[in-house]
Design brief:
The chain has 199 residues and is of the alpha+beta class. It is built from 5 helices and 7 strands, in the order βααααββββββα. It has one domain. It has a 3-stranded antiparallel beta sheet, covered by helices on one side. A two-stranded antiparallel ribbon has the order 1-2. Strands 5-6 form a two-stranded antiparallel sheet. It is globular, with a radius of gyration of 18 Å.
Length: 199
């Protein structure tokens, strides 16, 4: 799948690749889920929509699946999940995004000569999105990363798991809902940080 990345699209489900590369003829992601079924049961993944989302997101993304069922924008390093330690028991998704240090006004005069994230060449297919890559040449580099911290709320509309019989279908629906929420909530913030749109 050739994903059309935009300034606000940070995560996308890749169903076509999942079907085309499935060893079981159905779903590569589904096979990964079944291989980890005992771990999902032991980890209480079927207890709530939040527990299920945390568990299946970790399977759907790299490094468990490589490439992942969920693809991340090239300059999103990862999306991590965790539960709050306080009494709120809130599930969180943290989006780790490369941010050029030149966008940080205080860093400009202090780091002259240091390398920064390099802007990738334009895609010949016409996509306007340009990823940020590590610099190619040796030398000092300061590669800053921003973490966009998202707390899961009812607005995320995470579906509840229905059991093992519909494991793959439920998991696909859940990670698609998470990817949509990440794009809608973190996407505009990342675009605004880069000066590519309002927050």
């Amino acid at each position: 799948m050739s994903i059309d990345w935009t300034s606000t699209r940070l995560a996308a489900v890749d169903d076509a690749y999942d079907r085309d590369r499935a060893s079981n003829g159905d779903s590569r992601f589904g096979a990964y889920l079944l291989a980890r079924l005992d771990g999902l049961r032991e980890g209480f993944a079927f207890e709530s929509a939040g527990e299920f989302a945390l568990a299946v997101w970790q399977i759907a993304t790299s490094p468990v699946m490589s490439p992942g069922y969920v693809r991340l924008c090239p300059d999103v390093d990862c999306v991590t999940t965790w539960w709050a330690d306080d009494n709120s028991c809130t599930l969180h998704f943290d989006v780790h995004v490369r941010l050029p240090r030149t966008d940080l006004a205080a860093a400009r005069p202090l780091l002259r000569g240091w390398k920064d994230w390099q802007l990738a060449p334009r895609d010949p297919d016409g996509s306007l999105y340009r990823a940020r890559w590590e610099p190619e040449h040796a030398g000092n580099a300061l590669l800053t990363t921003t973490v966009v911290h998202l707390a899961v709320t009812d607005a995320w509309d995470l579906p509840a798991p229905t059991g093992v019989a519909r494991l793959a279908a439920d998991a696909k629906q859940t990670v698609a809902a998470v990817a949509t929420a990440i794009n809608h909530q973190a996407g505009p913030a990342v675009a605004a940080l880069r000066g590519e749109g309002p927050c």
